[in-house]
Every structure is written in structure tokens, then in C-alpha cells.
Amino acid sequence: MDDILITHATVATVDSSNRILWDGAIAIRGREIVAIGPTEVVSVEHPAREVIDARGMVALPGLVNGHIHMLTALYKGTMCGFGFEKTACEDMTMCANATPDFMLAASQLSAVEMLRSGITLANVAGDAIAFEVARQPAEALGQAGMKAFVQTMVADMFGLTDLSADAQLTEAEMLLREYHGKFEGRIRVVPSPGEALATSLKTMRRLAALAERENVIEHIHVFPRWPMGAFSWPVRGHSPLGLLKAGGLLNERLVAVHFLAATRSDIAALARAGASVVHCPS
Length: 282
Prior knowledge:
With 282 residues, the protein is of the alpha/beta class. The chain contains nine helices and 14 strands.
């Protein structure tokens, strides 16, 4: 006998044919879905201890949050009308002063909000450098039963800390060692630059080597606003994408977040590299 049988739901299977079952059932045994099909068939073949009548409801796979800053859960809505620059400065100040308890509370609240919205996997932006702070999203989302990619924020040129690149990478390695594959493999660690402009090429190359060694993605803000590209050339001698290419990070592992100010040539370069975009427009 199965544990749970969900009946009479509209089931979005997202299988190879993208079938929609208008009167579908889902049988669950332990932590595994053992059958999906018409209610009249599955309910007979899979009797269960608990039956949930889902008439008028839709059952679909968990959604993915491609980019989230956990800290913002505690103060979202409080900066409406500030504008991007002031809001970004306030955000960075919060990151610089976040304690483990503050990050844990924000991560737990974020987990509840995401689960209530049908999100089961989150790509968590790096809002912390120290291991004790950066581990809190991994801990909270893991305990909530979610899947997640979590990261520390490595930036050794224009960052939130006086820690050297070596010290920051040590914190990232600690997160990788302690949490990569934890919670039944649901938590993955993604050591990434906080921002291309703020990270030296040497450190980027070390992060690229680490990502290749551990077979993980790189989750980076790229072209979040148009001035970033113009500012990058006089300061670093490259565009943000040029920096990522020189640092060995412009490849199929790259998840480029925002990408709002990209030119056609930037888009073509990203496509040639096989990288992906998480387009957060607002």
C-alpha cells in the first residue's frame, strides 16, 4: 500500500510530451512518486493510507527560483522609491553587517515564502563571505526539504571586507567541504565572484579551477545595469564579459544573472560560450 494518493487533480506532467492530465492522480510511497496517470486507473492500482481529493487544483513539478538574495526577505518593501543606487548601497551595508542569526532568520523566512509559492529549488546569491554566515541559507533550506545552490561572495578588489583573496577562498572552500552534497545531496555549493568588476583575474581563475574540479556552476551578476559596462573599461580594461573570459569563467558553467545591459555582441558571446541567463528585469 502506498502512503499518499492525490486524486482528481489537473496534473502538468512536464514529461517528454508535456501531457496535461485533466483528471489525474499521483501515488506516493515514502519519498518517491510511484505512479502518475488517470484517476480511475491509478486509484485502483495504488490504494493508499491517505487520499487527497484535489478537485479544482493543479499539481505540477516544483518551481525554480533562479536568483534570490536571502537577506532581503527581512526588509522587502521598505525601500520602495529609493531608486537602484540607494537600495543597492543599503543592501550591501546589510550584507557587510549580517550576523549568523540575522542570516538564519532571513533564510528561514525565505524558505517558507518559497515553499508556499511552489518553489522547491533556489539559486542563492552570495550575500556573505564568512563561512558562519554563508552556511545559514544552506542549513535553513536543507532543513526545509528544499534543493539549493548556495555560495559565498568572493571579491578581492572592491568588496565588503579587508580579507585577502586567500582568506576569502578559504571561507568558500570551508562551505564547499561542509555543505556540498549535504541533506541527501539536495544542497550544492557554488563558489563564485560577487561581481566580475570587483574580482581580480587571478582570483577568477582560481574559482574557475575550483568549479571545474568540483563540477559546479558559477552564479554571477553580469551587466545588471548599463553603466557597469562603461565603467568596467576604464577601471579594468575589459568589459564585464571580457573579464569573465580572461578569468576563465565564460563557459557552460556560467549562470549570468540579470544581463539587462548586454549588447547584441554580448548576447552572441554568451551563446557561443554555452552559458545561461537568469533574467531578473526588476
